[in-house]
Design goal:
The protein is an alpha/beta fold and 241 residues long. It has one domain (11-240): Carbamate kinase (3-Layer(aba) Sandwich). The protein contains eight helices and eleven strands. A nine-stranded mixed beta sheet has the order 4-3-5-2-1-6-10-11-9, sandwiched between helices. α1 crosses α3 (73-97) and α5 packs parallel to α7. The longest helix has 25 residues, at 73-97. The two termini are 27 Å apart. The relative contact order is 0.16.
């Protein structure tokens, strides 16, 4: 990526899974991974892009596991939302250690831990060059952090939702099982529906589709991918109206 590159997308919402922070075995918190993620976000900021982040909690808790053991869905989801705040705090610390001013906002009020999510305050932070990490999902059970990412992207006026994965885009079948799987460079929302492609959960996908919010799916862990994507280069798979 050229040092002179500038952002095509001026405000982005980055969706990270909780597993992005996971230690050995896919659970817990690996501070080296947090540092890696923070550096990539700083690189995006250096392109003069504003960055909001929504992070999941699969490394700490999966509500589905509790529900399968008879736990009430609301309790299980509330635990998951609290776990996302833990991940958000980890990410904030990693960003601040490398000089990136960061605010954590939460959909569930935890005033001694983080700010409550307030749309205009989040936008103001972004305008002042701060990264905003939003924890707590949507604040309601039964909704995924994918849905939270789509909702907040729309509320803060993001130009695009970037879904960070370990796969370099959207394929017509699982590339881990089918060596002949074909990757899409661009695909329309309607094609995603017609071909039953896996992008985001359906509530999140519908929010983006109905509001013409582009979605970019990319391999976050490959050097230069997110920086190139924000600069407008062809990376991963772009889902467009």
């Amino acid at each position: 990526m050229s040092q002179n590159s500038q952002a095509k997308y001026k405000r982005v919402l980055l969706k990270l899974s909780g597993e992005a922070l996971s230690g050995p075995g896919g659970s817990g918190i690996d501070l080296d991974k947090a540092a890696f993620i923070a550096k990539r976000i700083k690189n995006v900021q250096d392109l003069n892009a504003q960055v909001g982040v929504v992070i999941g909690a699969g490394n700490l808790w999966r509500g589905k596991m509790g529900v399968e053991r008879g736990m009430n869905q609301s309790y299980a989801d509330n635990m998951g939302m609290i776990a996302t705040v833990i991940n958000a705090l980890v990410l904030r610390d990693a960003l601040e250690q490398i000089g990136v001013p960061t605010r954590v906002q939460t959909a569930i009020e935890m005033n001694k831990v983080a700010e409550p999510y307030i749309r205009l305050r989040a936008i103001r932070h972004l305008e002042k060059g701060r990264v905003v990490v939003i924890g707590g999902g949507t604040g309601n059970p039964y909704y995924t952090t994918d849905t939270a990412a789509a909702q907040y992207a729309l509320e803060i006026g993001a130009d695009i939702v970037i879904k960070a994965t370990q796969v370099d885009g959207i394929y017509d079948s699982d590339p881990r099982k089918n060596s002949n799987a074909q990757r899409y460079d661009k695909v329309s929302f309607q094609e995603v529906l017609d071909k039953h492609l896996d992008v985001m959960d359906m509530t999140a996908f519908t929010l983006c589709k109905d509001n013409n919010m582009p979605i970019l799916v990319l391999d976050f862990w490959k050097d230069g991918t997110i920086e190139d994507a924000v600069a407008g280069k062809s990376v991963g798979t772009l889902v467009i109206p």
